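Data card: per-record layout.
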Amino acid sequence: MKPPILGQQTFLRDHPATASTYDKYYRERYDREDDPNPLFTGRYLLILKEGSSNVLKTTRMLESKWGFTVANTADFVSETLSESKIRSANALFYNELGIALLGSDKTLVDRLITPGADYLIEPEKVVYIPDDLPEEEEKRSTWGIRLTGADRSPYSGKGVRVAIIDTGFDLSHPDFSERVITSESFVPDETIEDHHGHGTHCVGIACGSDDSEGMRYGVANEAEIYTAKVLNNQGSGAQAWILDGITWAVNNQCRVLSLSLGSRVYPGQRYDMAYERAAQYALSKGAVVVAAAGNDSRRSRHQYSPVSSPADCPSILAVGALDEQLQVADFSNRALNKGGEVDLAAPGVAIYSSWPMPTGHRTVSGTSMATPFVAGIAAMLCEKQPAGTPSSIVSQLKEMAKRLSQLPEDVGAGLTLAPMRDE
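The structure for this 423-residue chain is written out next.
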């Protein structure tokens, strides 16, 4: 029996019935029946234990033994990979990552799970924008730019490629009329245009400049902007789309990748191997990856949630949120699971930035806002240290951070600060 075609899959929030049996398992175990969002798409990821070394062997096994029609990234040398271009395939191999996306026939996938296999099978996650909080009063304060010293730094991220991997971007936004934007949508049947707003807001924080009245809200205001749409216009997406966006950004020589997105992580749950593999690929190509720690906590009620996925991966910098008084935001997640650390903190409450027209600008709170602050500052540091490796950039970000009185579980190394010129 042949598995279903990848291009025919329909899932996500509007189709919760497609969530796999893993969804029910986690909800029963962690008492989250009140959560309306499905955890998994119903598809699967095959992750080679030895990375990309056995791609050919595994491809032949999928084709000859199980009847898969396998597409792979080698088929897209002259064009960008997208699921919409492989509707005749029922498996997709990310050659660089050693990961294959499989269809939703669980019976067939179960038969692939054999003792001693050189691969793992994991359910593909549904990914969401964190529950960011719009401010009741639309403030125009850009306190975060001042607090991090971005407005006093001699660096602007000039010549550094920064990828914002999110809900897309409003290409017609007047604040960016003189900027070159390189963009790609990995959401089937949706263009790069941001009909949600979240992506445009994050691009503005990381790489924007001034609004029409001359107020600066962007950090690395001369960085080269790359934006990948991996979440749909409702703010959700498939894990494979995030892998698409990461691979695209890395292959376009982006030095900083910013991911203000995630999936809920439960106490004791390990980090996601597919994301970790993608992050390791990024590091091997000279890119730093930062991601939002998540907004699931309610600290005022003594409720703390673990750092979200993919921010909990060892090779990704997890960013927590601070308010103007340098207090941890009520919603910001905490390092509770082994390995799922908070690495840095940044402004994430009442953050003013760009929004799709005709609104133009909006003030929003969330670790989603803190993450592009760190991404923009990382781009500044890459400009200062053009030959810097990802490990050296990460080390310097932590060394430059302002130490805070809060626990490292909440703020990591402290408040991220923009680089200044060495005396």
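Known properties of this structure: Residues 367-384 form the longest helix (18 residues). The chain is about 25% helix and 20% strand.

See the next section for split statistics.
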